[in-house]
Amino acid sequence: MTNLTGSNLGDGSAVGRQTEHQDDVSQSSDLPEGWVKVALSEVVAVNPKHKDLEDQVAGFVPMALAPTDFNGLLNYEERQWDDIKNGYTHFATGDVIFAKVTPCFENGKAAIVKDLPNDIGAGSTEFYVLRPAIKDISVNYIFSVIKSYEFLQTGAENMTGAVGLRRVPKKFVEDFRINLPPLAEQKVIADKLDELLAQVESTKARLDAIPAILKSFRQSVLAAAVSGKLTEEWRDTEIRSWHYHVLKDLCTSISDGDHQAPPKAEKGVPFLVISNVNNGEVNFDKVSRWVPETYYDSLKGIRKPQLNDILYTVTGSLGIPVIVKTNKPFCFQRHIAILKPDHSKVNYQYLELALKAPDTFEHATNVATGTAQKTVSLTSLREFNFYMPPLEEQNEIVRRAEELFAFADKVEAQVNVAQQRVNNLTQSILAKAFRGELTADWRTANPELISGDNSASALLKRIKDEREALDKAIKSAKKKFVKKVSTKKVTTKKAQDTTINKNLSPVESVIADGIANKPQEIFDKLTPSLSMAEVFNEISKLLNDNKIEEKTVDGITGFFIK
After folding, report:
1. For residue 492, what are the contacts with CB-CB under 8 A and spacing of at least 6?
2. What is the DSSP letter of 39?
3. What's the predicted TM-score (pTM) here?
4. More confident site: 508 or 409
5. Which residues contact 311 (CB under 8 A, 6 or more apart)?
């Protein structure tokens, strides 16, 4: 994800901006008809818990199994619930999970939870979990919000904590304001996003495969160059005057860096290490050490790099040749060898091709010795054997190889641009979805599905009413309980157990465990099978039928079977 700063903006942060005017639902003038702008916590529960579930097979999701692609598959391990219920984040089939810690958050690690064993699971404590307040809300729409640039960008800006352990605050998630469409339109948007983003992901997958193809192409060019196939028609199809040569006969000297630790200096001559050359070119921008000029002057000529010499890594990231393209003085550690080609015998660019060739790299790996770090000794390096043409053909091979490599570089640059455009396209499509642009024609054709009782305002009121009804049920049950305990002795748990009907409703099944259960806890255990409204209606009916009661046991208030 591009342009994610991860910085904390303090009082001017997105949290401050998000929480302004949160008390009232806004019908902004720039929103489509029937839409409202709301805080995310008004339509989802953040980090709900499973409680008192029996031991059973469940899904376990460590952070490594969470995908980053929009349509990526969430994998899981099968574990017993008793082994993962403590110390991990709980979730269920139908929830949205996403990483809250850097860099996983910025990378977009998120998924819709699907098809868990027994529909329950747990995972990394670095996940946030979002559960729609009612099951009608499109989980795909909520997931799309989490994957949007605005959410990722402002979330990264509001991270808190130490460097390397920065996290998105829960308050930011709860207060993040979203454009909420009516229920029917949420589904239409989700379907359109599935279709469009599947095409984007397919294109992205094809683009992502091209770098590997180009790498294979470059290796093929190298193999063809040093085998004679690249110029077989140039020399009239037959290999003439190709002979084997050992490397030491093609160079005036083969040496390495000083084996003694050189003196340090604040400025002076750059001192290169493996990381300065392991990308195939000399990188002076990341030099972190310098030596005095007097030290450089004291080196033997064979250890002083000159234009068109070749550096060769012999330890660690071994087998990487790099042509020196400057006369600027520098020196280097002993893990780097320096080859000074004999230009009367070998084209230095051809020698680089020969050192890069797959067979040479394989040979270097085979002759390397050591345990912690494999090293190619100078003795072994000097005996590297190459099958080589005369200088005239070497020059032609270099010319042709450079043309092919330039072509590959051009394709690679085009792919990089295309990949960036595809990444931007995903966010562009999401932005259009959240502005209602993907469904403008649908709204025109279906005005009855976005107005009145079908509007987002009506949906929000429904959620609010259901939540308030649950609160009222608690207060009402408390009043009934206070009245009853004043006239009747509370029965013991043992007495309660003998009166429990074996044919229990879903709510009764939860309450029958003999542990104080609050309405929200009952809803959490039954979702996504029952909506908040269905849970509330059953609680109210059971109270009216005098089948359950609310009381306080051991200081905990909740519902019990009568």
Report:
1. none
2. E
3. 0.67
4. 409
5. 277, 282, 305, 321, 322, 324, 332, 336, 337, 338, 339
